[in-house]
Amino acid sequence: MKKYRSQILYGISILLIVLMHTILLDKIPRGFDTDEVGAAVDAYYLGHFGVDRWLKSWPVYFINYRDGQNALYTYLLVPMLLIFGKNAFAVRSVIAISSIVMAIAGAKTVGLIYDDKKTEPAFLFLYAVMPVFTITLRFGLESHLMMGIASLVLYSLIGAVKKETVKSYILFGFFAGLILYTYAIAYTVVPIFLLLSLFYLIVKKKMSIKKFLGAAVPFAVLALPLLLEQIINRYDLPEMKIGPFTITRLYTYRIGEIMTDDFFKKIIAGIKSTVLFDDLTYNSIPKFGNFYYISVPFLIIGIGYCFVRLFKSLKKDEQVTVYAFPLFFWLAYTLFSGFMANKIGYTNITRMNGVLASLILFVFIGIKATLDLLKKENIRKAAAAVLSLCYGIFFIFFAKFYFTEFDSYAYPYKWLFFETYDEEIFTFLEDPANGYADNQVFLPWVYTYYLWAVNPDPNELKLREWLPEDREIYQIGRYRMDGGIDLSSEYVVYKYGYTEESIAYMRSLHFKEYETKHFILFLDPLHDISFFGENVVLGSAKGKELILTKSYVSDIGNGQLAFYGWIDIPEDFGENVSVSMKAENSEASSDEIQSSAGAVYNAEILADTADGGRTVCYQFVLGADEFFDSGDKTFVVEGTDESGTTITTVKCEIK
């Protein structure tokens, strides 16, 4: 048993990592991140149509919401959706797998650093219990893929330095190029890291032309399409294709996000957000911290230890130290954090996620360096056991909180996560038998949540036609994602949490309800009232029909409804025209219905009609309860002379 202790701990740690990144993966965190659903929609379309939602074939950088999205996550997601179907677990399976890859790559890295495979299980345990990796690697934000590939970059470089073979440098060059497709921030961080590493290896006489070319060629091949992408967008050139791959031209180019303002403050903010926590509820939980606060001293010790080993290695007769490379990556990322945002608040874990690959190594190195100071083996083992117990206890409290309280604590995650629509909503709305197939429908989330639920053919969708020049997409067909309340439209409202006031207000306006698992579909209360529409004949006056050409009812707040429309009336109907509504039931016999504002307006003459009459506009305001609870109603149009004497009256019963 003692002989296999290391393998058992290795297996238990891997199992723990798998469980922490797969249990309730489709439910926690709740809903989809906006970029997560954008990648999912494009992956679905690539798998079924060979193009993304903008009709671009295999883009090297996706358009997403006009300003771009990294490609690797979407590419990896295509086979997952084809194999497992269109569901949240499939969408998040890529990030879950990347978390396991990151753990194993990190473990192999410490095995190389210490030339001791027995260190690997300890690293896996440390990785498994850290909050930051559970929280950030359970939802499909494509840029979070960077930390996993960063671990492979460090592992392959350290392996190449130790093996000193061209093949190992080719592998390193491949991963160094691949990481560029995880997050655009890598376009700057990786070159800085490569230059630092190259300079160090040249100084230590560990770099040859063959090794350099072995790494440079795969890196250059992978980097070239993205370099062309930057040139096309920087200089407003037309997009191009390389085989099936599209070098896309974006609608918005985000070069303006690179700024030097508050350089040192942003570096400090970047260190704080990665070492301690950031202000995004979907990235960290302050009471636990990213690595638990007990790890901070070890992290600092680890960084210091790597610096000492680096400086010692620069002496003439000293060998190269692999401790330098996680340090170079951390330095490159930290330096760039001073440029990456136009305000300090943007320096968060998401933007800094790649550096976590170095930080977890620093924590491990710091712990081992501290334990190694204890010369007696039994004391060292006891200290390691106590430390492991502390981490285990912290982990139990964290895991309990995450799986039972995290959603209620964090949702709606800075307004970036939203529940995906129940497909039943659209089945109901699109069925002509229900009578709502032509009405305008308002949806609460951005348009990609609609595309994920419905998946219309992108060739028929023609998304570009719905994109205004200077705005995001707010309408696709009859479905809108903005606007106020119109009583002749349908509304989809999320059931839970912050929408309670919206639900209460829709009910105060007497909307009908159709309930699904996560949403309430509010159906327009005027649907069965035939009076509201176009070209309604109100009656006859002066031998001619009085026609209501258009009529609308809109919510104006506080439970008040604005009634307005256009009426064609005969020429001699009356000098002044007024419009009102009367209740014709036993409780309010012939009493005029008025809101508390008493708003009944004289109609405004807009134009002359072809037959010599006039088109007038009317408007008045009523309370929703007064209108819907008043029983049978009559729409009254009156014409009066200059003295106010009624000349003509036309009444139309509203049914």
What report would you give on this structure?
46% of the residues lie in helices and 16% in strands. The longest helix has 28 residues, at 377-404. The protein has 3 domains: 2-410, no CATH class; 417-523, no CATH class; 534-654, Immunoglobulin-like, CATH 2.60.40. The protein has 22 helices and 20 strands. The protein starts with a helix and ends with a strand. The chain has a 6-stranded mixed β-sheet, covered by helices on one side. It is of the alpha+beta class and 655 residues long. The model is unreliable at 586-602 (pLDDT under 50).
Question: Any chance you could write out the topology, listing elements then pairs?
Answer:
Layout lengths: L4 H18 L9 E2 H16 L11 E2 L6 E2 L1 H13 L3 H27 L4 H11 L1 H6 L8 H19 L2 H13 L7 H18 L5 H26 L5 E3 L2 E3 L15 H13 L19 H19 L10 H14 L11 H4 L3 H17 L4 H28 L1 H5 L6 E2 L4 H8 L10 E2 L4 H8 L3 H4 L13 E2 L2 E2 L9 E5 L5 H9 L3 E4 L3 E5 L10 E8 L2 E14 L2 E10 L6 E8 L20 E5 L5 E10 H5 L4 E8 L5 E9 L1
Parallel strand pairs: 7-9, 7-10
Antiparallel strand pairs: 1-6, 2-3, 4-5, 8-9, 10-12, 11-12, 13-14, 14-15, 15-18, 16-19, 17-18, 19-20
Helix pairs in contact: 1-4, 1-5, 2-3, 2-19, 3-4, 4-5, 4-7, 7-8, 8-10, 9-13, 11-13, 12-15, 13-15
